[in-house]
Amino acid sequence: MERRKQLRKYIQRAKTSLTVERSIPIAQYGLFFALLSSASLVLVSRLFVWPFYRQTALIVFFVVVLASGIFMWWKRAKEKEALHRLDDYFLHNELVTALSFQDDKDPLIQSLLTKAVQNAETSFTNFKARKKLLFRPKALSGIFVSTIVLAILYLFPSATQMEAIEVEQEKAVIEDVKKEVAKLEKKAQTKDVKEQLKELQNTLKEAETAEEALREVVKKQKELALKEQQLKDKQTTSQDGNTEGNRLSEEDVEQLKELAQMQQELTQNANATQTAMSKLGKPASNTLQNAIASANNANNSQQSNANSSQNPSGNSQSSNQQGQSSQQSQSNSQSNSKQSSNSQGQGKGQGQGQGQGQGQGQGKGQGQGQGQGQGQGAGTGQGSRSLLTTPNRIGGSSETSVDGGALGEGSHVSEQQGNGPITKGTIRPYEEVIGSYKDSYIESSERLQLPKDLQNVVQSYFTSIESQ
């Protein structure tokens, strides 16, 4: 039994040797075909824009290498083949003869096994010393040439390949945006906000460029801002006690907090996307940049308001200062009225006062007196929000005039900035000016060629203001 085990060990060593000898040429041809396939794909990618051509070539390379490994395993040497190949180096084929019989008690079999074991080492040495064809010159030459060609194609890409790389980077930016929105959608708690972010995810799936994805993010941020403003207006109305039935529910309060948070997250995402686009050499359009800048300003103002609400001492001091300024404006208006009545037979006293605190107010008082220097006038410095101060046109209300004279010759020397003249505005009711402001803003948005969705957001905002 021991002699059979010794002979089996030599057979296993012969089997391993045969497998290695057969696998080395297969590996050479497999590597050659892998490099040739990758080089062919890179060469084809120079003809047209093919995004992810490098990844495709790399995948094909590994697939061919893997297929070569599977083929080597399929072509591995079997034990029977190793037995006969090793038996060829025994003088009288003792190996096959001795292992063909199973009866070890037979004296003849014992003699054959003993003789096979004695000649096994010498026979195996002769087996290993036989001539082998491990290397294939054609395959090695193909590997060398394919490697050089692939390196040249990779180091010197064409214009179409450069464009394909830019498309890859842009798609990577879009994927980052999708991942961030998906995280926000999982983080959302209220139903409405979750639906809004889910809708944004579906829209981003159809985006082909980073600018389209950025535009959709900005659009959704504006929609959330409008929704937040509507809830804030509803909250303000309910706090004033005008409508008892419009109080915010607990779900609305939670939604209001979440809307502010999601707006901030979307704005940060838009800023990161804009930075990534700038690094790619594809900056966002001026319209999107202005929209992102306005969103940043809105977030900054919200944060400042939140910080001020957490500092009540500062608020009390500011309210005291504002109350003092209001009282000073009242006393000034009364003194002006008295001086006017003493100097004229018929006089008018006017006083204006402004106060700032939780809200803003403007007031106007007039008094008339007849007789010998008698007049009355007072300014209270208090008022409602139904009046607005609108600026007058500098130089009158006439049309602008343009100097049509010829320009002289000369060069630009210097430029200085100074303070322009400031003129007093006129006080007009809120309802009279909101329409002109709306028309002016919509005309300016059309002149800037805002996207249709952002124009709808602007119109919805002014519509919500007019309906109040």
Describe this entry's structure for a reader.
This protein is mainly alpha-helical and 468 residues long. Helices cover 68% and strands 6% of the residues. It contains 14 helices and four strands. Strands 1-2 form a two-stranded antiparallel sheet. Strands 3-4 form a two-stranded antiparallel ribbon. β1 and β2 form a beta hairpin. α1 packs parallel to α6 (137-155). The radius of gyration is 44 Å and the shape is elongated. The chain starts with a helix and ends with a helix.
What is the element layout, followed by pairings?
Layout: H1 2-44, H2 53-74, H3 79-87, H4 94-100, H5 107-128, H6 137-155, H7 159-187, H8 191-205, H9 210-240, H10 250-279, H11 286-309, H12 312-343, E1 347-356, E2 360-369, E3 387-390, E4 426-429, H13 430-447, H14 452-466
Antiparallel strand pairs: 1-2, 3-4
Mean pLDDT: 75
Bulk shape: elongated
As a percent range, the share of helical residues equals: 55-70%
Please give the radius of gyration in angstroms. 44 Å
Characterize the largest beta sheet: strand count, sense, and whether it forms a barrel.
2 strands, antiparallel
| Fraction of residues in β-strands | 5-15%
Would you count the extended β strands for me?
A: 4
What would you call the structural class? mainly alpha
What is the first-to-last residue Cα distance? 104 Å
Give me the number of helical elements: 14
Low-confidence stretches: 312-385, 412-416
What is the H/E order?
Answer: HHHHHHHHHHHHEEEEHH
Trace the largest sheet across and list its strands.
Answer: 1-2
